Amino acid sequence: MYHRSHDRPVGRAPDYTAACLVMFGVNLIWMLFALLAAFGLAAVVLAGLTLNTWISWLAARRR
């Protein structure tokens, strides 16, 4: 049986961290714009505060 893994040596996996962070930012921006269009500035501010609280909680938990 033919296996592709035998054709080339196993190397390191590419680092997609930067691409992941960029796409997270792009998705965050369009979601905040959708919230702004649908519910107004108060919903965007509430979502931002909620995300800030959640990220701060995650950072404190990692320490």
Please indicate the count of domains.
Answer: 1
Number of strands: 0
Please work out how many helical segments DSSP would assign: 2
Tell me the fraction of residues in β-strands, as a range: under 5%
Q: How can the largest sheet be summarized? A: none
Q: Structural class given helices, strands, pairing?
A: mainly alpha
Helical content (DSSP H or I, runs of 4+): over 70%
The first-to-last residue Cα distance is 49 Å
Q: Per the principal axes of the C-alpha atoms, what is the gross shape?
A: elongated
Gyration radius over CA:
20 Å
Please give a structural write-up.
The protein is mostly helical and 63 residues long. It has one domain. Helix content is 71%, strand content 0%. The chain is built from two helices and no strands.
Briefly characterize the structure.
The chain is mostly helical and 63 residues long. The chain is built from two helices and no strands. The protein starts with 16 loop residues before the first helix and ends with a helix.
What brief labels describe this structure?
63 residues; mainly alpha; 2 helices; transmembrane helix
Secondary structure layout plus pairing:
Elements: H1 17-39, H2 41-62
